[in-house]
Amino acid sequence: MRMVFSCDHMNNTVATKRLSDAELNRPYVIETLDGPDVDCRRLLDLGFTPGEEVTIRTRTPLGDPLVVYLRGVLLALRRREASWILVH
Amino acid sequence: MPSATLTPAPTRELTVCLVGMPNAGKTTLMNAITGGNFKTANYAGVTVSLLRGRSRPEFGPVLQVTDLPGVHSNVNPSPEEAIACEVIEGRNPKVVADAFILVVDATQLERHLKFSGLVARQSKPLVIALTMTDLLPRAGLQVDVSKLQAALGLPVVAVDARTGEGVERLLDRVRTAGSQKSPLAELPSDPILAFGGVRRLLQSSGAVQRVAGSGPDPVTARIDRIVLDRWLAFPIFFAVLVGLFASIFWLAQPFMDFVDGSFVQLADLLKGISPDSLVVRFLADGIVAGLGAVAVFFPQILILFLLMSLLEDSGYLARGAAIVDRPLAALGLHGRSFVPMLSGFACAIPAVFAARSIPAKRERLLTIWILPLMSCSARLPVYGLLLTALIPGDAWKKGLAMGAIYVGSLLVGSITAGLASRILSKHRNPSILAMELPAYRKPRWKPIVRATWARGSSYLQRAAVPIIAVSAVLWVLSSFGPSGTLGIVETPMDQSFAARIGHTLEPALEPMGADWRVGVGLISAFAAREIFVSSMAIVFHVEGDDEETQQAGLLAAMRDATFADTGLPIFTTASIVGLVVFFFFSLQCFSTVAVVRKELGSTKLAALQLAFYTGLGYVLSVATVQGLRAIGIS
Description:
The complex is a heterodimer. Chain A is an alpha+beta fold.
């Protein structure tokens, strides 16, 4: 089951991309989560909510997981999980 | 004259539960409140153990304190999260909270207060303990506690659990707290709305001021640039591992020798009292020797726990787990699996406990499944004996072989995990990593030493009973034999029940290139693997006052040992390699089986694991011996 959590004011003028494809050290705004239901609910509980700012700080040496900064905390996030987070 | 007014009515001690998200500093606070005097309490049917203790008397009237596991989310919860939610919602009959202390990381108010909704809705007295306030300047934040208190409608106490500052005040507030009406109770359960609500609450209160730029604190950012650097990350990681290994083996060695020596002396002392008494010999050779087998690993386990706590508290452990997550995830494991796997090289028992830090059930099960393959230190004396018999002389060749066994155990463990996860992947519900990397902090020794001692002694308590029981049974089996029709008499080892069992097993042992005496050694090794060496010395009638002469005598006896029927030597290249293979795979440790059964809450899985590895060890050992013989290596 997949679930989409959308942001109230979707900004259609900016290109949406998956967090897994996002550039390093650039702040992005979370637009929606698009992935397995249960996992997205957990990501939401962790603070990955639409409208929130998220930055990829670094990739670990093997390229996966990514280290992201969100709501004042650093989190290691697998690329698979990052790909469920749509940002602009 | 006794009077009702003179004796205070025995008031029931209040039960207070510490709740919060992982990494909020709950366990450190638990340490500060109880002075480290807490016990791990297990609850039937679940693998979770909660820390329970009583507050120190200097903090006023005593409170019963329970530290609940940290909760990220109540969606698809880990076993720990599930039990914490049960207690919070009052659904757990064993732990009924009279009040809650919500532990909140001051640098991450938003995330931690969002969780508070669940607790605040319970309409029970609730006090917020604000931790990590020392990290606020680094995070570029200022928090006004009184404004926060006013906005939340709850008592808020800043504590530094590492120095004990604020703890007394916190407990005072808990005793006087009523069930307040907090806007936190109004937070919706929908995470998006709840986060929004918390943010509005914090913004309107003006409790949080940002005084420096956003982003992670500069100290953490600087250390992460080195520790997670593309080229430096793995050298640093391996240096940490090597340091850990070196400490577990070399630093612990003198302590282990001391413990070992003490138990030998204690046994001798007992036998000195009355050498002919059966009871004394049972106590000395059965019970004391069994206790010694557990206690000898105690120094190693304490050092392991101490260093692991240091790494965890400093913030490095989570980075290590992140670095190795990719290969481990490919095997169906979790970044955090590296901690139990590493611990497994000391002893599988603390490793099984360490697997609790893996949040997802499937990954935890898989990690526990492969732990018996990690070359634990109980195998060291066995490999030491077998490799010396196999490669006499050059120490470096022996060292190389030993190294190969260690690396091999890691490789085989990985392959096993990979294969098992492919089989399990039919009902695959892979969990997510999303692991917090906490800010780096200088660890404090006192709480770490306390926690290490508490965890170490809990290991002793858990492991002691099964090991003593098994040692006692094995002692009886190897000291008594059948006599006459139904009688039982004390006999030498080679006429004992153990020898009988060995003889019965001989047809199965023969393809391994072993005779009944080796069989007795293998059976006794189920109490603890290193007992193989001492029981081999007994069955081969080796006398020696100290270990050196005993080992030399045993090696000589092994060289001369022949099969009774054919007169051919028993310990050949093929059969010794076969034994090494057997010890490599076989789960010869009933204590591990007992602990796994408890952790997984499943007798079936524990029995399956025992049968799987011991069966695999036997089959591969036979295959090795027969294969080597087939290519001309007897």
